[in-house]
Amino acid sequence: MRKFICIQCPLGCEIIVEGERIEGNKCPRGKEYVMQEMKNPKRVLTTTVFIENAIHPMLPVRSNGEVPKELLKECMKILAGVKVKAPVKKGDVIYKNILNTGIDIIASRSMERK
Amino acid sequence: MKTDVAIIGGGPAGLAAAIEAKKHAKVTLIERNEELGGILQQCIHHGFGNFIFGEALTGPEYAEHFIEQMEGIDVMLNTTVLEIDKNKRMLLSSPDGVFEMEAKAIILAMGCRERTRTQIFIPGTRPAGIYTAGTAQRLINIEGVMLGKHVVILGSGDVGLIMARRFTLEGAKVEGVYEIMPKPGGLTRNIVQCLYDFDIPLHLSHTIVEIVGKRRVEGVFVAKVDENFKPIEETKRFVPCDTLILAVGLIPENELTKKIGIELDDITAGPVVDEGMETSIEGIFACGNVVHVHDLVDDVSFSAIIAGREAAKYANGRKIKRRKIKVKAGENVRYVVPQIINGRDMEEITFYFRVKKEMENVVTRLLVDGEVRKEKRELIVKPPEMVRLKVKGDLVMNANSISIEVKKVA
Ligand SMILES: Cc1cc2nc3c(=O)[nH]c(=O)nc-3n(C[C@H](O)[C@H](O)[C@H](O)COP(=O)(O)OP(=O)(O)OC[C@H]3O[C@@H](n4cnc5c(N)ncnc54)[C@H](O)[C@@H]3O)c2cc1C
Ligand code: SF4
């Protein structure tokens, strides 16, 4: 048995999945949500990387699309070793095609050279 | 120094107010930090701007969109407003010294601050390793400091939930989130994407009864609470940890506001404002978290645009009616902002309010002089999620009594 909370609308239905049975969703979108969550859950990753010569030591970054949830930790490991130099512009690609997902890690903000 | 509109605080509220006000007046934006953006610069997660941009931006992305529009605005960084008076004279402090500034209108946009341990009274020792969630967020996301390996979080507000995920991604183990109320304090999407996603346990109706540790936190005693929020002795147990995060709520930052005697709302802890975001002192406006704590930044920006526009008009000498009609919080409504309707000539007015208890299948209503003038169906209303009701301005312009209520649909 697995329990989900649907976040497709503010009702937040609690959905229980047991084998083939899906229960608790008040509309069909809940079922779709749960199917996707069971098949291939994906998330946007937001974190930071080191930056040199900038106002702060860390640069916030994000994935420019969703990456499979089970790869989040692996992505974090890769990004822990990344160091960039200011200046950086918002949207600059910091790490291309992370773990062959086709998704890039981009800068969430601009940082000038200090 | 002189200006038309002085804005105190360069977070999303101050930024949006400045951009709007500069269309009509000379604007000075004063920010105590070394850069603009306010709390958004440390909120690196995404989920900002769904309404305004139609996509979920990160905090810094949302901020930069507004920071790019600062041309023509006099921005003063590293500058703190120490005092203001009724005549709109301000005392400022910057690395160059203390100086005065005079404005025709002032907009308060100082945001909010966090409640601390002393405000919630947890007994025990005072070891290192205890942080408020916002401080932890700044240290990790901006300074790049890792705070601990085994983390306990007290409080399930959004900041605490976001930090639970952040600690986990950074390789720490979050032992659990403890919430004294029977329902979570944060948005459902945060419960799901920050806790469930990483199998972090959420213990509702639980609190921390004692902190243990000499130099550094070694653990906490937690216990279940009864209906009166009193810890139940038999349920007390020890949870080892090296870091304790307090996410026990935010309160509007109103030191300046209090000092000059602006009327405050007991429930929101922010100034009472009218539909133009003007406080009880003429020409002093307020917007964003300084008025009431928002869960969505989009609402902060919307209210700031109104404050910016109305403050600029005031600076340009416009006089308004002051009918001072109180907006009553009716059935299942904890508070409503704006609290006062003065009868400004406005096309639209949005009432923001929070409910006392969760209810499904409801209608939110505006009553004017005892009659229902606007209704909106909502599938569900919950205390952590602000509710909005947008109405035509002329519906309330000449009202003698106004109230907002939430009723179950029969
Ligand atoms: C952890 C966290 C997570 C959030 N997550 C989301 C989310 O996912 N989605 C969403 O939409 N919203 C979110 N919010 C809410 C949103 O970020 C806030 O509502 C918004 O940032 C408030 O804006 P503000 O301008 O009122 O305050 P702030 O951003 O706090 O800005 C206030 C500014 O005023 C300055 N200041 C204060 N006093 C003085 C003074 N005396 N002199 C000079 N300057 C001064 C401060 O330095 C600061 O820069 C979150 C909030 C927090 C805390
Ligand atoms: S199942 Fe349907 S009604 Fe329930 S939360 Fe999901 S989208 Fe909303």
Protein architecture, described:
The complex is a heterodimer of chains A (114) and B (410). Chain A has 114 residues and is α+β, with helices and mostly antiparallel strands. Chain A has helices at 28-39, 72-80, and strands at 2-5, 14-18, 21-23, 42-43, 46-52, 58-63, 67-68, 83-85, 93-95, 105-107. Chain A has a five-stranded mixed sheet with strand order 8-5-6-10-9. Chain B has nine helices and 27 strands. Chain B has helices spanning 12-21, 50-53, 59-67, 117-120, 133-143, 158-169, 188-195, 255-259, 297-315, and strands spanning 2-8, 27-30, 46-48, 57-58, 74-76, 80-84, 89-94, 97-108, 112-114, 130-132, 150-154, 173-178, 202-203, 206-212, 219-224, 237-240, 243-246, 250-252, 284-286, 325-329, 333-337, 340-341, 348-355, 359-368, 371-381, 387-392, 402-408. Chain B has three domains: 1-113 and 250-319, FAD/NAD(P)-binding domain, CATH 3.50.50; 116-248, FAD/NAD(P)-binding domain (3-Layer(bba) Sandwich); 323-410, Sandwich (Immunoglobulin-like), CATH 2.60.40. Chain B is an alpha/beta fold and 410 residues long. In chain B, the strands form seven sheets. In chain B, strands 1, 2, 5, 6, 7, 8 and 19 form a seven-stranded mixed sheet that branches. Chain B has a five-stranded parallel sheet with strand order 10-17-11-12-13. The interface between A and B is medium-sized, with 28 and 34 residues.
SSE blueprint and pairings:
The complex is a heterodimer of chains A (114) and B (410).
Chain A (H helix, E strand, L loop, with lengths): L1 E4 L8 E5 L2 E3 L4 H12 L2 E2 L2 E7 L5 E6 L3 E2 L3 H9 L2 E3 L7 E3 L9 E3 L7
Parallel strand pairs in A: 5-8
Antiparallel strand pairs in A: 1-2, 2-3, 4-7, 5-6, 6-10, 9-10
Chain B lengths: L1 E7 L3 H10 L5 E4 L15 E3 L1 H4 L3 E2 H9 L6 E3 L3 E5 L4 E6 L2 E12 L3 E3 L2 H4 L9 E3 H11 L6 E5 L3 H12 L3 E6 L9 H8 L6 E2 L2 E7 L6 E6 L12 E4 L2 E4 L3 E3 L2 H5 L24 E3 L10 H19 L9 E5 L3 E5 L2 E2 L6 E8 L3 E10 L2 E11 L5 E6 L9 E7 L2
Parallel strand pairs in B: 1-2, 1-8, 2-5, 8-19, 10-17, 11-12, 11-17, 12-13, 20-27
Antiparallel strand pairs in B: 3-4, 6-7, 7-8, 9-18, 14-15, 15-16, 20-22, 21-23, 23-26, 24-25, 24-27
Helix pairs in contact in B: 1-3, 1-9, 5-6, 6-7
Bound molecules: flavin-adenine dinucleotide (FAD) and iron/sulfur cluster.
